Amino acid sequence: MDPAAPEHIxxxxxTSCDETAASVILRQGDGAGRILSNVVFSQLDDHAPYGxxxxxxxxxxxxxxxxxxxxxxxxxxxLTFADLDAVAATAGPGLIGGVIVGLMAxxxxxxxxxxxxxAVNHLEGHALTARLTDGLDFPYLLLLVSGGHTQLLVxxxxxxxxxxxxxIDDALGEAFxxxxxxxxxxxxxxxxVEQAAARGMSGRFDLPRPLxxxxxxxxxxxxxxxxxxxxxxxxxPVTQTDVxxxxxxxxxxxxxxxxxxxxxxxxxxxxxxxxxxxxVLVVAGGVAANQALRQRLGQVCGKNGFRLVAxxxxxxxDNGAMIAWxxxxxxxxxxxxxxxxxxxxxxxxxxxAEPAPGAGVKA
Length: 363
Ligand code: KG4
Ligand code: ZN
Known about the structure:
The protein is α/β, with parallel strands linked by helices. It is 43% helix and 18% strand.
């Protein structure tokens, strides 16, 4: 790295799902980064009555809140638009209405301020966050587990990703949310399932572990969702104890699957990069907040001499800092975009990876 390289102040805008977020970060010439502000407006209350995110409501809410969130991000950083060196906006993948709102705002700022625009892949934001928080070098292994994606990737550089595995049906966060909905625990389901699981006994229900022990690193969670429904039907009417026991069994089953799939990916990483002195597994995305999952991943890392890096939960769930940071990394490499950059509902990090048809945009 060139310590004499210029430092950059970058504004990041995130609107791909149900968080309206903006952040200002500083990236120094030596590659170190600092978050100057990080504002997240969660639309949870707008979507809660529907038990999930409603795309049209999300897009309208982004329009309603983005200006305020942007103003707050600049105010918290004690800066104005004139201080920015670049603006980065999520250009996909995600709910297209929301993506358009954020990307168009980014384009307007870039045009008026005459600064570069960086159209950021939301998944690259998640993938590079650990370089902002922990100053990691390439390569590293990444487990990305969110409401929209479940992937294992080798991260070799900015824009250089090899997908080792993906879900072939539901994303892990989606499986948590559907389980919660089935058991009447509300949205978002992940934290509610984790809390209920802490009070339950996992041995009471025997749930399947899809793809466990199979070759490759793909995931499958839709069968588990069906098994949860059957378990609930078996004991209906479901009591509080039943809910806790089913949640414990579900969480145990998914953690087993993730441990098994990650072990396969770790082995593959070791074969590809045999001399890596301190290999790292990064876990990112909203589900990375789950303690049972972190514990299983810690076991895999301990067994294989890997270090587990998990950014703080507020940087694992969707935020503007991860978009600003990915933008700053791209800017430092001269990777900027034109004002005709397109919003994309689907945008795989590894375009050469085989499609997983059942996963749609999640693959
Ligand atoms: O990364 P994220 O904020 O948004 C997406 O890009 O999807 O992830 C949200 C997902 C939701 O499905 C939510 O239920 C899940 O992350 N989640 C959790 C936990 N906290 C959030 N899942 C399991 N355990 C948790 N503690
Ligand atoms: Zn995300």
